[in-house]
Design a protein that fits this description.
Oligomer: homodimer
Helix content of chain A: 10-25%
Number of domains of chain A: 1
Number of strands of chain A: 8
Strand order of the largest sheet of chain A: 2-1-6-5
Largest interface: A-B, 34 and 34 residues
Number of helices of chain A: 2
Strand content of chain A: 35-45%
CATH topology of chain A: Ubiquitin-like (UB roll)
Radius of gyration of chain A: 15 Å
CATH class of chain A: Alpha Beta
Largest sheet of chain A: 4 strands, mixed
CATH architecture of chain A: Roll
CATH superfamily of chain A: Phosphoribosyl-AMP cyclohydrolase
Shape of chain A: globular
Distance between the termini of chain A: 43 Å
Chain lengths: 127, 127
């Protein structure tokens, strides 16, 4: 059986993908992959996702340069989550210019932004 | 605004929730939460999820005893992922008796089960 057939693709043909920093263990982002994105990620060792908002294949870092090189790919027990161990180029995974997309912490009933912006997004995405 | 309103609930009223071991940094499982599950998780400091297969609120560990005590709750940049830092009672998060649900690693085009079963599931779920 093709390894891609072991993935339980949802009704949109997507699987949830988590990118974890291979060195620090920090969860950097969560996105979605279609079959092509996962196949390319495995073949090239660089993370590809499916952008739901843009409706197209998305090579992470294609405009920012913040590519993710992939050291390991895991699948969960029921086949609907993929976990990537990655090295994050530029040290920034989030489009807000932060290291991780998980930068809001619940504190006494409100979300507090606890991580610094490392680089202004307008500097990341300029042409 | 109620902190729960900052979450971008999907069309099913659910949000993706990742449980990460607060000590080792290992991603243990990914599940879903509805509003009640997240509210209870925050209020009680014990992880609750929404079981899609059973169609009901699910206190993790309610039958196995493998409760998850929650040390931190984070929300991602677009509000559709919650990350829990947890302490896993019994050291087993997966219903297969393994520490983590992410126990299959892609290796030369096939998924290899690389983590040991720590306890026979029939021993975990007996009454």
């Amino acid at each position: 059986m093709d390894w891609l057939d072991a993935v339980r693709w949802d009704e949109r043909g997507l699987v949830c993908a988590i990118a974890q920093d291979a060195h620090s263990g920090r969860v950097l982002m969560v996105a979605w992959m279609d079959r092509e994105a996962l196949a390319l990620t495995a073949a090239q060792g660089v993370a590809h996702y499916w952008s739901r908002s843009r409706g197209r294949l998305w090579k992470k870092g294609e405009s920012s340069g913040h590519l993710q090189t992939v050291q390991e790919i895991r699948l969960d027990c029921d086949g609907d989550v993929v976990l990537l161990q990655i090295e994050q180029m530029g040290g920034i995974a989030c489009h807000t210019g932060r290291q991780s997309c998980l930068y809001r912490r619940l504190d006494a009933g409100r979300w507090v932004e606890v991580d610094p912006v490392l680089r202004d997004p307008s500097q990341i995405y300029r042409d």
